[in-house]
Amino acid sequence: MDTPQTKYAKTPDGVYIAYQTVGDGPIDIVWQFDWLGNVDTIWEYRPSAEWFRGLASFSRLILHDRRGTGASSRNVDPPNLETRVADLTVVLDAVGSERPVLGGALEGGAPNILFAATFPERVHSLFWWYPAPRTTRAPDYPYGADAEVLERSTHATIDLWGTDAYGYSVWTGTQPEAGHVPWGWLSRQTATPDVAVAMDRIYNETDVRGAMPSITAPMLLLARENDREALEYLATLLRQPQIRLFPGADELRIHEQPAVLDVVREFVGVEPDAPELDTVLSTVLFTDIVGSTQKQAEMGDYRYKGLLEQHHEIVRDGLRRWHGLESDTVGDGFYATFDGPARAIRCALEVGHRLLDLGIEIRAGVHTGECELIDGKIGGITVSIGARVAATAGASEVRVSQTVKDLVAGSGLTFEDAGDHELKGVPDRWHLYRVVK
């Protein structure tokens, strides 16, 4: 997926908000960046790109940069929560999104809370990875950051913004390691240091818990297993909460939990696409007339043509009765597929018996295996094996592979051992059986 095209929506006060849409629906999902984000460069960071591509696989994903950051107007003050809600409204109007799903991580979910509480008619549902309705710890909220973390965050923003050491100082207190998150690059693409300091202050002063009880839409809270208590507390503030917990301990690495995408898809009510099948288990049946060349010579072309037409009619009637699908007809031979081996065998027995009235004997072979779908038709080695099994059969005989015999246990069919055979062009030796009438 190439980087989506970035467009601009102009707010009433003249600010340009950069936004993107990617994906075809059937539902709209708005994802709010938290404190790091740029609609253009975020696609160059593989983990984020994979997450957004995952969301776009079952939605029209709508992304935008908050004012003062990313590709949006930078010569403006960083937005408070109310302004972010107003800017989101402008973006939704620009793309014609009437009732989207609102998603975000950490602080990024805060404006979704205010938007959903203010404009309930415009919200389908919400999901929030590691919800942070407020940043700081309080007597009634023991899940926020303590004073030490906040102080470290403030100093890191002032002194280290734009460097890789920034993120590690804030979140881990350690130095970058090989393969680390490119904090410096991500932060520089988001904002300049002065804007970052202002965002940090707003971030630490925000508390949207008071708006949560007003949300009427369903809301899904997502986190690691060790944050169960915090999510259960937040669920008490919501009318229609759902909680899903995942293994692990790192709240930042949402991309390492592909199961989150499945849970979100289920939550928003989008059925997964049917898998693009390239193989399928199928039973193949091959038949041909025994001694057809000699019979044609005895009858002559004209009379034999009439006999062959009757043969085809009987075979096709049998396929209809036993739910077989004709795949090919070459001369006096038929190749058909079935979704069950017992039906293929009974079809072959019935057709063989009826053809005796025309003075025709056929041989038949049945095999079941994984078949390739080639331009919508069954093909592959299983088909070749079925043809070779048929070639070993005698007049008025239905011969089957070991696989078929094993699959029809309890069907009332009986078999005789036909021994091991080498099948032309097929590896190994194959144990075959003849069907006893």
Task: Describe the structure using short key phrases.
Alpha-Beta Plaits; 8-stranded mixed sheet; alpha/beta; 24% strand; elongated; Rossmann fold
Give me a quick take on this structure:
By secondary structure, the protein is of the alpha/beta class. It is 36% helix and 24% strand.
What best-fitting shape do the alpha-carbon axes yield?
Answer: elongated
- Name the average pLDDT: 88
Rg over CA atoms, rounded to whole Å, is 34 Å
Distance between the termini: 59 Å
Under CATH at level 1, the class of the largest domain stands as Alpha Beta
Strand order of the largest sheet: 1-2-4-3-5-6-7-8
Q: How many separate structural domains?
A: 2
How would you spell out the order of helices and strands? EEEHEHEHEHHHHEHEHEHHEEHEEHEHEE
Low-confidence blocks of residues: none
CATH topology of the largest domain: Rossmann fold
- The name of the CATH architecture of the largest domain is 3-Layer(aba) Sandwich
Report the sheet with the most strands, covering strand number, pairing sense and barrel closure. 8 strands, mixed
CATH superfamily of the largest domain: Alpha/Beta hydrolase fold, catalytic domain
Number of helices: 14
Portion of residues in beta strands equals 15-25%
Tell me the helix content: 25-40%
Topology, number of strands: 16
Structural class call reads: alpha/beta
